[in-house]
Specification:
This protein has about 160 residues and is α+β, with helices and mostly antiparallel strands. It folds into 2 domains: about 1-50; about 65-145, Copper binding periplasmic protein CusF (OB fold (Dihydrolipoamide Acetyltransferase, E2P), Beta Barrel), CATH 2.40.50.320. It has one helix at about 1-50, and strands at about 65-75, 80-85, 95-100, 105-110, 110-115, 125-130, 135-145. The chain has a 7-stranded mixed β-sheet with strand order 3-2-1-6-7-4-5, with no helix packed on it. A hairpin with a 4-residue loop joins β1 and β2 (about 80-85).
């Protein structure tokens, strides 16, 4: 009989181990599903917090500048809405075309102006702010020949840029 008792005990142990293994598997699946659901909830909560924070929304707060370019104006085309500026100095200098549209803010001395006021030789700062898909662009005219007293309008030729 001893052999029979050991055999029954072995079966009970084997069934018990199988049930425990099955429970651990189910618990693992539930935990993975909960973790994934929790991550989505956290992402949704962060998204809602961003929506409620006006400084993070384009056009509703100052926002943080993502990229700033500075340099002299090399060419201006009000008809096409383009400004060409030099960014950098020496061997690293590059000419960059800046496209202006109806949403681009052009500023001089803290006041809104237009692309018609940008002249060759003016020093400008172009600031890009916002989030992907909602980037705003601001062109600040910081100085140059048109800011000097008694300067005449640019004749369309290039002037010295000082860089």
């Amino acid at each position: 009989m001893q052999g029979g008792l050991l055999m029954v005990s072995f079966r009970k142990v084997a069934v018990f181990i199988g049930v425990v293994g099955l429970l651990f598997g189910v618990v693992g699946i539930v935990d993975a599903a909960h973790t994934k659901s929790h991550a989505k909830t956290q992402a949704g909560a962060q998204s809602k917090a961003d929506e409620m924070n006006p400084s993070r929304l384009p056009g509703q707060g100052p926002g943080k500048p993502e990229m700033i370019l500075q340099g002299p104006v090399l060419a201006v085309s009000p008809a096409t809405g383009f400004i060409v500026m030099r960014n950098g100095a020496g061997k690293d200098a590059e000419e960059l075309p800046i496209s202006l549209d109806h949403k681009t803010a052009v500023m001089r001395g803290g006041k809104t102006t237009s692309i018609d006021e940008v002249k060759v030789g003016d020093r400008i700062r172009v600031s890009y702010t916002g989030q992907p898909g909602e980037v705003s662009k601001t062109v600040d005219i910081m100085g140059g020949p048109s800011m000097r007293a008694g300067s005449s309008k640019a004749s369309g030729t290039r002037r010295g840029t000082g860089m």
